[in-house]
Every structure is written in C-alpha cells, then in structure tokens.
Amino acid sequence: MSKKKYKIAVIQLNLNDVAENNLKKCMSWVRDAANQGAEVISLPELYSSHYFCQSEDVDNFALAEPLYSTSFIAFSALAKELGVVIIVPFFEKRMAGIYHNSAYIIDTDGSEAGLYRKMHIPDDPHFYEKFYFTPGDLGFKTIPTQKGKIGTLICWDQWYPEAARLTALKGAEVLFYPTAIGWHPQEKEQYGENQHGAWMSVMKGHAVANGVYVAAANRIGLEQYIEGTAGIQFWGSSFIAGPQGEILAQASHDKEEILIAEVDLDLQENVRQNWPFFRDRRIDAFGDITKRAIDQLF
To answer: Which parts of the chain are coiled coil (predicted)?
Structure first.
C-alpha cells in the first residue's frame, strides 16, 4: 500500500564521462538525495556514459551491460542501504544483436521491483537510437514499490499521450521520465525556445490529462565527442509537476541539481474527483486509436 505522502527526486547531471566515473558520481548524488529526504529517486537516461547515439558506430555496443550486472549490483546495494527506491536507466545487452534502452526500478530492499524497456525509439539527426535499441517488448507498466506505485517511461516516450495514459490507467501515481534531450547548438537560437517549451507542455499535459505527478530527469552539458560536429547541448531543465500541471520544482539549464517534491495522494484523489477525465472517457469510441492512420475516402 502506498503511503498518503512520499517524497520523490530527480537528479540532473553532466554524464559526459566513462562508465566507472559516472557510476561513482551517480551513487554519490543518490546518497545526497536520500539524505535530503527523497524516497523515490530517478537518474537521467543512459546514466553510465556520454550520449553515444550521436553516431552509428558498432564500437558503442561495448557500453551495454547484461541484466543484473554492474549497475544492478551497485544500485541494489545502495537502495537497500538507504531504504529508497532507485530508477536506474541503462544500456541493456539482452543477447548478441539485441539491445534495449532500459530502466531498473529497484525497491527499498534491493530487489528488482520492475524493469522497463523504452517503447518508442527515435531516429533523428544525432539521435540515432534505432541503430542501437530494439523497441521494448514489456509494454507500459505500473510498478508497485514499498514507497508508491510508479510508472517509468523513457525520453522519446514523453511525446506519446497513449504511453502516459496506459501507464496511468494501471494505477501509476507518478510518471518518471529519465531523459537525454537537448539542442543542436546551431539551431538553438532559432528553434530552441519552442523546442524546450513543447517538451515542457506535453509532459505537463500528461499530468493534467491523467491526474498524475510527472517527473523528468534530464542531463546537462555540451557533449561534443565526434570530430567535425557541433554535438548536443543538453538543456537540463528537469522538473516535477503536480496533477494539475503545476510546477513543483524545476532545475536550471546548466547546473547539476537535485529536485525534490512531495507526492500527496489525497490531493491527487481530490483533483481526479473534480476533474473526472477517466470517468468520462468514451472507450466505446476509441477503437481506431490502434490504427497507424485513419483513412477516410470520400
């Protein structure tokens, strides 16, 4: 059973380093978040390395790890020590030739509460994720933990209201979005404000439409590791929103930070009672949502 109130945290970091250093860094920041009272803590997407998807390079598959190896062992021990839930996004090697962009949900006793594999995989300039990641096959899940019922989606999933809806319908109180999103430096001046605004707006919309808390954990810093390219400037701006889309905490664009906010289940229930969007859904009329497009011939 969830408590009526519990504290969640997202950690915003520069992760442009090698796996060993990123692991030590993230463990230290998780410990700091727990010391500040956080009970459910999320790291950014693909925490253990720089954002390698800027290029299509088979050598990058060496960054992947099998299930229940380095990341799980380290964060399982830490979760048990601190008595917290930790969301650990990592590059999963399932078998030779099959890799996923995944996240462990590790419970307070160090056990695996759940595993999520990113469902929507982008293929955009310098976000060449389809080269690396097989689409998730575990579906959208709500994970019961000792602290609360949480849903974990990953980055590109954030643009899809269906993903948020299905996760919320399974009882999620919070939707966590570990993220690696930023600007192409050459586009920032012209498009940057609108791109960032769209990112904020769509996730605040998920909070409102589903009456849930939404927590996005992004990375920061310019990652320019490919010669002759401008790299990606990760825009930070991690945030936690309440069930009416209200911003409870928000980070800067360029500083490493911990954001903490309280999940209040009585408030969530009150919001849903006054805005009964789930009650009024016309599920009898939604059959076409499973089609790629709805062709209407006249």
So the answer is: none
Pick the closest to residue 42 from 141, 146, 127, 153 (CA basis): 153
pLDDT at residue 164, rounded to an integer: 98
Q: Which amino acid belongs to residue 163?
A: A
Question: Under 8 Å CB-to-CB from 153, ≥6 apart: which residues?
Answer: 116, 118, 119, 140, 163, 164, 167, 175, 176, 177
Q: Are 260 and 30 in contact (CB under 8 A)?
A: no
pLDDT in tens, 46-95: 999 999 999 999 999 999 999 999 999 999 999 999 999 999 999 999 99
Residue in this structure with the two tokens 């999933």, named with its chain if needed: 157
DSSP state at residue 283: G
Provide the token pair at 44. Answer: 């950014």
Strands of the chain (E only): list them.
5-12, 40-42, 85-95, 98-106, 112-117, 142-144, 149-152, 174-178, 182-183, 213-217, 220-223, 232-235, 239-241, 247-250, 257-264
Q: Are 10 and 215 in contact (CB under 8 A)?
A: yes
Q: Where in 24-161 does DSSP place strands (E)?
A: 40-42, 85-95, 98-106, 112-117, 142-144, 149-152
Average pLDDT over all residues of the chain: 97
